[in-house]
């Protein structure tokens, strides 16, 4: 008898996502879907608003990484005011924005690893759900929990110093920034009381990378095989191929490492990227036009960035990058759980970047804004913690927005997340008529690897509550389990 | 003595208010000692199984499930707090209130420049996704709300003070000057 299994996180009740798994009469999984149940309508209701409001307005899409939206919108608006496409800002303007961004990457990656992922790694995927959360980590690994909290705090302090507020700041303005870094702020990051200084943060980030490597060496079976499928990978890279999370050209590679998008200009994204709508999710499905809808889907985020970049331009992260690349013999890494490893290498890179930027005298300069000749259209791309983020605006003669197009990071990962759910569900549920808590958590872990906003949000301190029902074709519930 | 019980939820918000709660930083470890979290993103409890002392809600109501969830919170919490701009006034998502829902959906799914105009015209509509309301509603238009904490998001210190005061059964009386509306 064919059946449908629904995995409903409380997130659905609170308006986020859910999973359905369809099975045929031989207990084979025929389809697994991650549905995104949110719709806001930003593309329409920002129309008519003045363009300079976009950086403060559109960031309200997401309070988890508002800086990414703040800066992507600001970069698009830079183009509109004729201040250049990512390279025309004053040194102070650009470096303050970069500092804000790396502060954001640092706090977001720290939050994700320590609060959301470490319970699975440290306490085990099959540990009692009552303790398998950050509270359990705090009780059993107090030092580590404190590190997580303090690293997030440090990143938030960097955001405060550059954006004016920790959440929904106002620092980036058309063509630049509204303040520089004061000597007092600089000193607090360089010489802050233990542990809140950048050297300690870099040391802790290195410690987190080592922790993961150690865990991996003991659990390579699960980490390597948990969810693996060939994927294309897309991100920005610097013109010379270095990792750059703030600005660059668009590059994509296929599962074997062949370049399928060769360092193209972001302003031309419409030539290369399309989106498909499917009736069962509010989230669209992006694809590379040249490869089409079937084959053109791609992964973004830490895993993709370490696959597209040729090197990382800071020494400690580069050293880890080389170890990471050697594991797959230089080929692209398609193992979903290695996303965590990649994310921690980026955490280390962000720490090093913060130190470099804070030490740069340009950041205390007083030439903050670039002016130019106004145009009517602008595109802004940035590597948000979760992957490439696209903002695109057109304005009219009255400076009002007439068109807004947004492709957010989690949307770019829509198809890969569905693929990962299919992979894990196919492995776990095939032939099963009974659901266990461990099975549910594993489906969740597949989604969690992508750090989608929906999981990040609900995982803030604990983990996603789930309800799974096994339903036959007549909608009779065969088995149900919740936690 | 048993600990005061706190439940939290994010409806049509951006989770920025919950993130601001996390900005209490290391006091979070203190909080875990002081209160017990019931239904909330902080733990695994999906359904209310007991009466809670304080319920904290971020975000307004933009779909049918937000409304059901809000009513459930009112029924199960002695004190209900609207946290942040969206919960109090609908916030930024309520900018769509002057525009028919149909236009918003058409702009996102038919009008976007990344959509191939030759594709079949699809607007998501499925039993597995909830119904969108005609407009975004602030919480107090649907249930009684006891306290309002403004800000986008409210500052971490304000949330901390409010939580401590309410959880210990005291009347919340925060001077107006402390409120920030951005």
Describe this structure in words.
- The complex is a heterodimer of chains A (483) and B (182).
- In chain A, a hairpin with a 2-residue loop joins strand 4 and strand 5.
- In chain A, helix 17 runs antiparallel to helix 18.
- In chain A, 59% of the residues are buried.
- Chain A has 483 residues and is of the alpha+beta class.
- Chain A folds into four domains: 102 residues, no CATH class; 73 residues, no CATH class; 165 residues, Orthogonal Bundle (Cytochrome-c3 Hydrogenase, chain B), CATH 1.10.645.10; 106 residues, no CATH class.
- Chain A contains 19 helices and 16 strands.
- Helix content of chain A is 44%, strand content 19%.
- The radius of gyration of chain B is 18 Å and the shape is elongated.
- The relative contact order of chain B is 0.20.
- With 182 residues, chain B is of the alpha/beta class.
- Chain B has a single domain, classed as 3-Layer(aba) Sandwich (Rossmann fold).
């Amino acid at each position: 008898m064919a059946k449908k299994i629904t995995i409903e996180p409380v997130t659905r009740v609170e308006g986020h996502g859910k999973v359905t798994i369809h099975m045929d009469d031989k207990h084979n999984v025929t389809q697994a879907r991650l549905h995104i149940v949110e719709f806001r309508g930003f593309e329409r209701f920002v129309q008519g608003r003045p363009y300079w409001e976009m950086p403060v307005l559109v960031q309200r899409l997401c309070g988890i990484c508002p800086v990414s939206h703040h800066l992507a919108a600001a970069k698009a608006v830079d183009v509109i005011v004729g201040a250049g496409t990512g390279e025309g800002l004053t040194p102070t303007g650009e470096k303050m924005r970069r500092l804000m961004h790396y502060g954001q990457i640092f706090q977001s990656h720290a939050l994700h690893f320590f609060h959301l992922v470490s319970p699975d790694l440290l306490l085990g995927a099959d540990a009692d759900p009552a303790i398998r959360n950050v509270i359990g980590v705090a009780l059993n690994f107090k030092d580590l929990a404190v590190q997580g909290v303090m690293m997030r705090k440090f990143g938030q302090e960097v955001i405060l110093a550059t954006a004016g507020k920790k959440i929904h700041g106002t620092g980036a303005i058309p063509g630049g920034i509204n303040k520089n870094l004061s000597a007092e702020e600089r000193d607090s990051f360089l010489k802050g009381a233990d542990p809140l200084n950048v050297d300690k943060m870099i040391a802790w980030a290195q410690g987190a990378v080592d922790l993961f490597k150690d865990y991996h060496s003991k659990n390579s079976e699960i980490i390597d095989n948990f969810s693996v499928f060939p994927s294309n990978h897309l991100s920005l890279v610097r013109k010379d191929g270095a990792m750059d999370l703030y600005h660059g050209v668009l590059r994509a590679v296929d599962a074997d490492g062949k370049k399928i998008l060769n360092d193209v200009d972001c302003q031309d994204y419409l030539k290369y990227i399309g989106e498909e709508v499917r009736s069962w999710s509010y989230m669209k499905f992006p694809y590379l036009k040249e490869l089409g809808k079937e084959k053109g889907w791609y992964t973004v985020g830490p895993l993709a960035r370490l696959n597209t970049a040729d090197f990382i331009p800071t020494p400690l992260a580069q050293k880890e990058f080389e170890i990471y690349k050697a594991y797959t013999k230089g080929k692209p890494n398609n193992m979903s759980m290695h996303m965590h490893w990649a994310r921690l290498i980026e955490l280390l890179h962000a720490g090093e970047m913060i130190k470099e930027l804070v030490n740069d005298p340009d950041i205390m300069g007083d030439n903050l804004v670039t002016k130019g000749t106004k145009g009517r259209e602008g595109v802004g791309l940035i590597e948000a913690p979760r992957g490439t983020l696209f903002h695109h605006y057109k304005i009219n003669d009255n400076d009002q927005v007439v068109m807004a197009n947004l492709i957010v990071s989690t949307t770019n990962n829509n198809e890969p997340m569905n693929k990962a759910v299919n992979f894990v569900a196919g492995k776990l549920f095939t032939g099963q008529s009974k659901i266990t808590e461990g099975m549910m958590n594993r489906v969740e872990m597949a989604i969690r690897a992508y750090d989608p906003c929906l999981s990040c949000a609900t995982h803030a301190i604990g983990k996603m509550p789930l309800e799974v029902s096994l339903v036959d074709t007549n909608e009779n519930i065969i088995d149900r389990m919740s936690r | 003595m048993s600990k005061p019980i706190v439940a939290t939820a994010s409806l049509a918000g951006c989770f920025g208010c919950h993130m601001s709660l996390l900005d209490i930083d290391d006091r979070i470890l203190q909080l875990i000692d002081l209160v017990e979290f019931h239904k909330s993103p902080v733990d695994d409890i999906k359904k209310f199984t007991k009466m809670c002392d304080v319920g904290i809600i971020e975000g307004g109501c933009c779909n049918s499930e937000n409304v059901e969830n809000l009513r459930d919170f009112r029924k199960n919490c002695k004190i209900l707090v609207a946290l942040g701009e969206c919960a109090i006034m609908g916030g930024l998502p309520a900018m769509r209130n002057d525009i028919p829902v149909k236009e918003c959906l058409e702009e996102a799914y038919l009008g976007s420049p990344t959509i191939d105009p030759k594709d079949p015209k699809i607007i998501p509509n499925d039993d597995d996704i909830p119904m969108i309301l005609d407009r975004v509603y602030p919480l107090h238009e649907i249930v009684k709300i006891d306290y309002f904490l403004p800000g986008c998001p409210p500052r971490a210190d304000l949330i901390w003070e409010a939580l401590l005061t309410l959880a210990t059964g005291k009347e919340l009386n925060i001077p107006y000057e402390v409120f920030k509306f951005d």
